[in-house]
Amino acid sequence: MSQASTLFRLQQIDSQMDTLRARLAELEELLKDQAALQAAQEKARQAEAQLEEDQKKLRHAETQVQDHRFKIEQDESTLYSGKIRNPKELQDLQHEVASLRNYLAILEDRQLELMMVVEESEKALLAARQELLTVQARTVEQNAQLLSEKSNHLRSLERLEIERQAASAALTAEELQLYTQLRQSRRGVAVARIVDRTCSACGAMLTPALIQSASSPTVMARCATCGRILFPG
Ligand SMILES: [Zn+2]
Question: In angstroms, rounded to a whole number, what is the distance separating the alpha carbons of residues 167 and 5?
Answer without folding.
Answer: 10
